[in-house]
Amino acid sequence: MRIATFPSTWKHAIIVPIHKPGKPANSTSYRPISLLPTLSKLYERILLERIKPYVYVIPKHQFAFLDLTQAFDKVWHSGLEQKLKTLNLPAYLLKTITSFISNRSFQVRVETDFSQLHHIKAGVPQGSVLGPTLFNIYCNNYNIPTPRLRVNRYKRLLCY
């Protein structure tokens, strides 16, 4: 953490496709599982504890606005970096998290065969410790309307 970097060997994932039970054998019938180094996950837990005091509370109603396919894969790195800057993180932490999301790569493994190396240009790593928190930071927007509650004449709560 002193050098504000995330080791490149920890940013390489091995993707293992697992067949979904009861599905036909085609490309959409497999669930990709990302295997990440154990030390990477330990370091991520330390980073997560360090950023928690700076993270805004995500509104409870925000979940209703998020129904995206492959949402973690669509996070724009420059946009996430801008959101992280608004948190006023210490410089070393901002640089380490920027290092964490940049220059990531993966390979797909099927039995003992590996695909060629692919570089990731967007998204936060699925299966990582920091991924969900970084996704929430990226999606957190103060312009999301807060639901207003009122009771209609049938005594039911309505959200607007």
From TrEMBL:
The keyword Cell wall biogenesis/degradation does not apply. Pfam families: RVT_1. Residues 1-160 form the Reverse transcriptase domain. One of its GO terms (molecular function) is RNA-directed DNA polymerase activity. Keywords: Nucleotidyltransferase, RNA-directed DNA polymerase, Transferase. It comes from the Eukaryota. PROSITE patterns: RT_POL (PS50878). InterPro entries: DNA/RNA_pol_sf, RT_dom. This is Reverse transcriptase domain. The lineage of its organism: Eukaryota, Metazoa, Ecdysozoa, Arthropoda, Hexapoda.
